[in-house]
């Protein structure tokens, strides 16, 4: 019986067109992803047919396969019912268990067969002759088989059991689709909930698709691992698959009806109701004549009817419950923020949270509901009756469309109600209903509103609702591919507009203006589609599109034709206007086009890279900021010197974007050639500028904005919150290395030669070049800024004078000491908090809505001044200013005595929970440290330059943080940093560098920097380490000939270290060294009053190359062994540490016995992350 | 008056459902007889504006039905052969909803008409139950009720008595008759008695063609004294089938009683009074013979 019913399912589906179609789709996507650069599934930086890429494609396609699975499995489970065969089948003598299991297994096998086309697609794709052979490795069969066998096969069985049971129980395919949708959304939301490191393992364990399980397994895979590592069916993956198989079996056993075949009929009890007792009226007149033509009443009735049908349907209730469940995840994790510390629930974050939660739901809702609503009459079987009533097509269209919109609006309202509740529950009561209204119900919702018109239209053209759903989904997928194929402009993406970020300082700013035009554009097209849509509305079961087209004119009527014409006119006019604004007035460059342009720039100008350029030594800038017009007029009096030893004849200029007028007036020099394509120009001296010569001149620019853009809107100048630095404002000199393509593959595609990311550490020719760039040195600085009355304008320097003139507010700043040629101009209407501390004025310029963390910032500045001042040397300024700028950009940056600080970093952090990392304090300290590392100590423009500025700033900030919050709290922070480092190296696309050679690699100079510096601190101690740093600073303070390098840092460290420590430092600095420490066993026995604890530790040390290929090294290292009375994640007090000492560990197994007075709860090897451990999770073991 | 001219429809699977149909249907009840698959429902749906023919025209009281479907719908009452209903809506509310769609705008009139129809179709006691939970016969009665809403001038009922018990069928017949003679009522059925009881005019449809058209009584008269019957055994039946124009056979108490058509009495046959069933079956017989000869 089992085999017979299995074979029946198998033969049945093999003949179905859905089998061929799905197999083709599942073949094509991976095939295209392998053979074409334009289609990408997952973003692997590895070989196309490497183990990682294949596994990733297989697993991601496994998510899509959910719907394939429902199609086959639910089809099988309900077929007897839908084809009304059940009474025939169930009266035969079949063994129910074998019969059902056979059918189920058959359907799963069919799905698995379809899915087998995925690895086959990659395999065949990898043989295509035009694929870049550099991106292909050898063909290894196990790469294809392991993800299929270990992840997909058990996944299909477990999910299949659930769908089978649901479909069998409810006798509804739709119920299975809803379940699938539920599983999918739960998966997405689960991802949001478990993104923090401490929840990752749970997330990996419970992921139905094993996406995060694979993510966890491959989290720290290097480029080398990604090409060759196989997943094994053990550990997390095994647990995950077993959990789901168990869950699936349980559901199937409980609801699958495996043991009996029963013909089910929903026989509700018939109760006598009130109605039955009312006597029937007699002699009612039934021949009242209908007056068919009047449509308004029909419309309102249909509208009410549709609304009721949609909003009170069981599916909607499921959806609402689901949505609330979904949103309640906001309580589980902190949103936004850094290092696990959340932000205050500002309304704009709430709007984003709702959007993030709803985005997928909305797409699914639109696809599902437009099918349901458009086909409601056909689906219920009532079509013939309803459609032969004298109701205009337009009435159906509009009432149904409105009910679709009502679903979306109701979901948004639910979202808003929830987030309001959330805000109150978090103690935040500054409700901004205008931000909800515009941000949520207009900016976020409107694109979906228009999209639903498109899906309605598609449904009307489709012969049935499933084809309509398929086409709608195909459109959505296609629109993603569309941008990869070059149609990037938002005008090609139905319903979409440019992004509209919200800032508490600047509101919606100018973003709404452009967005409005897009909405008008899509609104007009939607109206046109609506008119055609109701014109072609299907009435009757056999009404071919061809026949409906014949009656199109009649159905549209005069009004419809007029509307169509008008909407098309508006559509084309607004389209033209948008085109004019975004592509004529402003520049629009697609991704590929930009890369081509970068390549052309490099070909044209790379030869001039080493040309000498004049160096600026003095700047006096006159800057007029017109915030309301977003316009800046600036003139800078500049003094240049030729500090090179050869004459300068020509200089390449680069003009910043958004510059409408510019001039460089230097005596004896003139602009001889402008190359608009690259915004470049050649400045030529009539008489070459001789070595040592100085000239004074002016540079002037007018920066302005015309119309609106599709993307890359300039955010440096805002109505409230201007923040622009000198390189963004003034033309720059020399070749711009930051303009070239860094991606290796993109370079090779364009035949560009290999290009080092940074100059070699040993390249002494670059030692006089600052890491800020060629020609950047210390300058005398002075500026006069004007801005609107009511705003405060700020630049580096001390305020000399401020006055009002002609309705504008002027500020004169002057710096009293040389500073790096890197300055900024800011303007906004700010509140100011001032405090004086040991002769230094601390000022914070903030938005009145964000006054939460000012004291933290001030405290951090004070502590930093104290610690850095005593450890490294005096602060060079008499003032520290922190200035808030709009969250369009989220970073903080240190300029001389000036620290612009994004509103999204720190100003809105919610620091009420003392367990959280106080990252506001830390970021402030980091930026303060840059006044030493970066502004006092420069760095040569070679590998490792960012170590001197960033890693040393990380270290300094961590020291201040540790002083305030204690060493025990640092563990959480450093664990974060180690994790980010290991992930960063996994995503490296070029080559991981040893620490001292970091080249533009954030994960090294920030993340690894923290860990390395903490390791040094542990090994050398605070005083020796600080004295080395202080000595480095003293040698190189304001020094530019030469600038220091990491070699100088290494020398200073070695100078204070013992030979053994020097070996350790070399491991940290010159090699990529990784450790793998693990407590395999820990036992404790009571001996008299004491406890004898025995730890078994396996230890290994590896050296990795730039691709991540590891070779084992002998380990002989002193490592922390710690016994805790509490879980180290909850460590608060020193007395919770029973024992802490360094023990020597060697490669292989180590046994350590410790006697302590109390029974420990946890044991840890290197629990405070002093070493770079590949897997930190096994370093702690509970007793 | 409904005039149908050269109506032709071929489905995408190649079935020619309507094959050059010409019909003129006067006011009053019109019966459309035909076996399963003859094209009755296709014709009904086409007249009800739910399907577009490949060729031909339909005109009702000066309205070009195919070009101006909305105008016809204002005067149409249609009961499809097979229909479902929205879930979770009571008969009364659904009927009220349909009444509005038909254009019964006056609330009081609408209420009276809806309640009246519920009484007429014997659904009054079940009016607040969901129609989706009705049994087949009840649902059919609901269909009849909705088709009569708004006093339509053209009523098309496609196999209305299917699934009705004899009592309900009688009730329905009475209701149809009471509607008056000023309407065009097309009754499509394969039950000959429906037509003979109700219709002054009728047509027989077979394989998409009109095989016969006229007044049932006159048509029956034409067969007078040409129908002969005989009770035969199993072996004789085969013989009769081969040698005579066998129109119908039925079993009476386990014995075959055959009707044959002939101008003279065949040996052993006794004369039988012609009825409409004989007309119907003889028409189908001739159509079959014709097709067989053509092939």
Give a description of the structure.
The complex is a heterodimer of chains A (1183) and B (295). Chain A is of the alpha+beta class. Chain A has four domains: 2-255, no CATH class; 296-585, no CATH class; 610-734 and 772-937, tricorn interacting facor f3 domain (Immunoglobulin-like); 1071-1183, Immunoglobulin-like (Sandwich). Helix content of chain A is 48%, strand content 17%. In chain A, the strands form six sheets. In chain A, strands 1, 2, 4, 7, 10, 12, 13 and 14 form an eight-stranded mixed β-sheet that branches. The longest helix of chain A is centred in the middle third of the chain and has 34 residues, at 552-585. Chain B folds into two domains: 2-215, Rossmann fold (3-Layer(aba) Sandwich), CATH 3.40.50; 221-294, no CATH class. In chain B, 36% of the residues lie in helices and 28% in strands. Chain B is built from ten helices and 14 strands. Chain B has helices spanning 40-47, 69-73, 91-102, 107-120, 136-147, 166-178, 192-198, 216-222, 234-243, 276-294, and strands spanning 2-10, 16-25, 28-33, 55-60, 63-64, 76-79, 154-158, 184-189, 201-206, 209-214, 227-232, 246-252, 255-261, 270-271. Chain B is globular, with a radius of gyration of 21 Å. The mean pLDDT of chain B is 90. Chains A and B meet through helix 13, helix 14, helix 18 and helix 23 of A and helix 2, strand 6, helix 3 and helix 4 of B.
């Amino acid at each position: 019986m089992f085999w017979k019913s299995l074979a029946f399912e198998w033969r049945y589906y093999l003949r179905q067109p859905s089998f061929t179609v799905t197999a083709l789709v599942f073949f094509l996507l991976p095939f295209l992803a392998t053979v074409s650069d334009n289609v990408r599934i997952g973003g692997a930086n590895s070989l196309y047919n490497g183990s990682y890429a294949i596994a990733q494609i297989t697993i991601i396609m496994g998510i899509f396969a959910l719907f394939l699975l429902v199609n086959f499995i639910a089809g099988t489970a309900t077929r007897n019912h839908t084809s009304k065969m059940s009474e025939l089948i169930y009266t035969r003598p079949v063994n129910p268990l074998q019969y059902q299991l056979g059918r189920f297994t058959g359907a799963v096998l069919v799905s698995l067969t379809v899915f087998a086309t995925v690895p086959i697609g990659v395999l065949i794709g990898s043989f295509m002759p035009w694929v870049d052979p550099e991106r292909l490795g050898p063909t290894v069969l196990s790469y294809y088989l392991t993800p299929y066998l270990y992840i997909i096969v058990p996944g299909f069985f477990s999910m299949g059991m659930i769908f089978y049971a649901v479909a069998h129980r409810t006798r509804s395919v739709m119920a299975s689709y809803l379940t699938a949708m539920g599983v999918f959304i739960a998966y997405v939301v689960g991802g949001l909930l478990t993104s923090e490191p401490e929840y990752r393992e749970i997330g990996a364990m419970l992921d139905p698709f094993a996406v995060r399980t694979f993510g966890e397994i491959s989290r720290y895979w290097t480029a080398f691992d990604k090409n060759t590592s196989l997943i094994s069916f053990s550990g997390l993956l095994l647990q995950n698959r077993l959990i789901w198989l168990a869950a699936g079996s349980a559901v199937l056993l409980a609801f699958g009806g495996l043991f009996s075949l029963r013909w089910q009929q929903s026989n509700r009890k018939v109760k006598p109701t009130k109605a039955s007792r009312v006597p029937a009226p007699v002699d009612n007149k039934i021949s009242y004549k209908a007056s068919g033509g009047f449509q308004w009443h029909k419309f309102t009735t249909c509208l009410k009817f549709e609304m009721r049908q949609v909003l009170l349907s069981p599916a909607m209730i499921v959806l609402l419950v689901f949505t609330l469940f979904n949103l309640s995840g906001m309580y589980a994790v902190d949103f936004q923020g850094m290092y696990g510390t959340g932000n205050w629930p500002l309304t704009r974050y709430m709007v984003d949270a709702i959007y993030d939660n709803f985005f997928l739901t909305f797409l699914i809702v639109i696809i599902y509901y437009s099918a349901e609503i458009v086909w409601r009459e056909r689906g219920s079987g009532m079509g013939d009756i309803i459609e032969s009533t004298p109701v205009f097509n337009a009435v159906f269209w509009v009432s149904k469309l409105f009910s679709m919109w009502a679903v979306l609006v109701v979901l948004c309202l639910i979202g808003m109600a929830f987030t309001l509740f959330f805000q109150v529950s978090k103690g935040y009561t500054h409700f901004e209903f205008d931000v909800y209204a515009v941000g949520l119900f207009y900016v976020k919702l409107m694109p979906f509103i228009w999209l639903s018109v498109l899906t309605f239209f598609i449904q009307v053209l489709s012969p049935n609702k499933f084809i309509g759903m398929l086409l709608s989904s195909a459109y959505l997928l296609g629109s993603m591919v569309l941008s990869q194929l070059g149609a990037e402009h938002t005008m090609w993406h139905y319903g979409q507009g440019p992004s509209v970020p919200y800032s508490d300082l600047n509101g919606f700013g100018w973003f709404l203006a452009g967005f409005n035009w897009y909405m008008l554009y899509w609104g007009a097209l939607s109206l046109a589609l609506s008119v055609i849509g109701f014109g072609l509305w299907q009435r009757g079961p056999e009404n071919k599109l061809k026949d409906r087209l014949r009656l199109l004119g009649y159905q549209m009527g005069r009004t419809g034709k007029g509307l169509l014409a008008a909407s098309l006119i508006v559509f084309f006019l607004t389209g033209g206007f948008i085109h004019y604004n975004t592509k004529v007035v402003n520049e629009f460059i697609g991704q590929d086009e930009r890369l081509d342009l970068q390549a052309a720039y490099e070909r044209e100008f790379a030869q001039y890279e080493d040309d000498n350029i004049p160096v600026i030594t003095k700047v006096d800038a006159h800057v007029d900021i017109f915030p309301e017009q977003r316009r800046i007029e600036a003139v800078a009096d500049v003094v240049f010197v030729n500090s090179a030893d050869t004459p300068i004849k020509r200089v390449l200029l680069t003009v910043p974007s958004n510059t409408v007028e510019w001039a460089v007036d230097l005596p004896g020099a003139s602009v001889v050639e402008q190359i608009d394509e690259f915004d470049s120009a050649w400045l030529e001296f009539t008489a070459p500028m001789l070595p040592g010569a100085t000239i004074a001149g002016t540079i002037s620019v007018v920066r302005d904005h015309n119309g609106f853009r599709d993307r890359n809107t300039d955010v440096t100048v805002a109505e409230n919150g201007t923040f622009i630095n000198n390189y963004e404002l003034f033309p720059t000199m020399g070749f711009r290395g930051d303009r070239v393509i860094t991606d290796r593959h993109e370079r090779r595609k364009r035949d560009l030669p290999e290009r080092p990311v940074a100059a070699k550490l040993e390249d002494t020719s670059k030692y006089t070049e600052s890491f800020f760039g060629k020609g950047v040195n210390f300058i005398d600085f002075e500026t006069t800024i004007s801005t609107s009355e009511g705003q405060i304008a700020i630049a580096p320097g001390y305020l000399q004078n401020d006055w009002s003139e002609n309705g504008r507010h002027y500020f004169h700043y002057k710096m009293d000491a040389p500073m790096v040629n890197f300055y900024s101009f800011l303007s906004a209407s700010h509140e100011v908090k001032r405090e004086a501390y040991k002769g230094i004025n601390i000022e914070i310029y903030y938005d009145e809505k964000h006054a939460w963390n000012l004291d933290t910032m001030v405290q951090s500045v004070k502590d930093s001044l104290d610690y850095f001042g005593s450890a490294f040397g005096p602060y060079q300024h008499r003032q520290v200013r922190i200035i808030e700028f709009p969250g369009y950009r989220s970073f903080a940056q240190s300029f001389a005595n000036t620290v612009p600080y994004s509103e999204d970093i720190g100003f809105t952090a919610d620091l009420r929970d003392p367990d959280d990392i106080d990252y506001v304090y830390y970021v402030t300290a980091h930026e303060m440290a840059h006044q030493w590392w970066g502004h006092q100590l420069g760095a040569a423009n070679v590998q490792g330059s960012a170590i001197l500025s960033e890693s040393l700033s990380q270290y300094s900030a961590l020291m201040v943080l540790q002083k305030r919050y204690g060493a025990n709290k640092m563990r959480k922070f450093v664990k974060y940093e180690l994790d980010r480092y290991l992930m960063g190296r996994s995503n490296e696309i070029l080559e991981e560098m040893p620490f001292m050679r970091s080249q533009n690699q954030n994960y090294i100079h920030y993340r690894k920097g923290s860990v390395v510096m903490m390791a040094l601190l542990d090994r050398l101690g605070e005083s020796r380490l600080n004295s080395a740093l202080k000595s480095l600073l003293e040698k190189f303070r304001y020094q530019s000939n030469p600038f220091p390098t990491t070699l100088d840092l290494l020398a200073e460290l070695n100078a204070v270290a013992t030979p053994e420590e020097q070996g350790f430092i070399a491991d940290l600095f010159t090699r990529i060294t990784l450790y793998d420490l693990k407590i395999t066993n820990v036992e404790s026995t009571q001996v008299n009053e004491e406890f004898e604890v025995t730890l078994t530790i396996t230890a290994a040390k590896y050296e990795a190359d730039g691709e991540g290929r590891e070779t084992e090294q002998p380990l002989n290292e002193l490592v922390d062994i710690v016994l805790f009375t509490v879980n180290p994640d909850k460590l608060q007090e020193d007395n919770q540490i029973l024992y802490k000492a360094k023990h020597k560990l060697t490669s292989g197994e180590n046994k350590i016995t410790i006697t302590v007075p109390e029974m420990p709860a946890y044991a840890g090897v290197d629990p405070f992350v002093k070493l770079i451990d590949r897997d930190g999770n096994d370093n702690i073991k509970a007793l | 008056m409904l005039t149908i001219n050269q109506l032709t429809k071929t489905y995408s699977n190649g079935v020619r459902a309507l094959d050059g149909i010409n019909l003129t249907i006067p006011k009053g009840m019109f019966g459309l007889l035909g076996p399963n698959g003859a094209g009755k429902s296709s014709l009904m749906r086409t007249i009800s504006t739910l399907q577009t023919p490949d060729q031909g025209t339909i005109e009702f009281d000066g309205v070009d039905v195919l070009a101006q479907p909305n105008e016809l719908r204002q005067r149409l009452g249609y009961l499809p052969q097979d229909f479902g209903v929205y879930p979770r809506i009571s008969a009364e509310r659904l009927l009220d909803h349909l009444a509005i769609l038909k254009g019964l705008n006056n609330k009081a009139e609408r209420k009276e008409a809806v309640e009246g129809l519920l009484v007429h179709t014997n659904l009054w006691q079940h009016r607040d139950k969901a129609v989706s939970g009705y049994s087949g016969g009840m649902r059919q009665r609901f269909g009849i009720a909705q088709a009569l809403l708004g006093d339509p001038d053209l009523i098309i009922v496609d196999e209305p008595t299917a699934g009705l018990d004899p009592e309900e069928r009688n009730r329905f017949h009475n209701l149809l008759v009471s509607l008056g003679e000023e309407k065009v009522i097309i009754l499509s059925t394969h039950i000959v008695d429906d037509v003979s009881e109700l219709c002054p005019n009728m047509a027989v449809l077979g394989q998409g063609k009109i095989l016969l058209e006229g007044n049932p009584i006159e048509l029956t008269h034409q067969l007078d004294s040409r129908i002969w019957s005989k009770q035969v055994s199993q072996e004789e039946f085969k013989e009769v089938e081969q040698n005579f124009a066998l129109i119908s056979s039925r079993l009476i108490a386990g014995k075959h009683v055959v009707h044959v058509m002939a101008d003279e009495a065949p040996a052993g046959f006794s004369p039988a009074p012609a009825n409409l069933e004989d007309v119907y079956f003889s028409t189908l017989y001739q159509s079959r013979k014709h097709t067989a000869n053509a092939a």
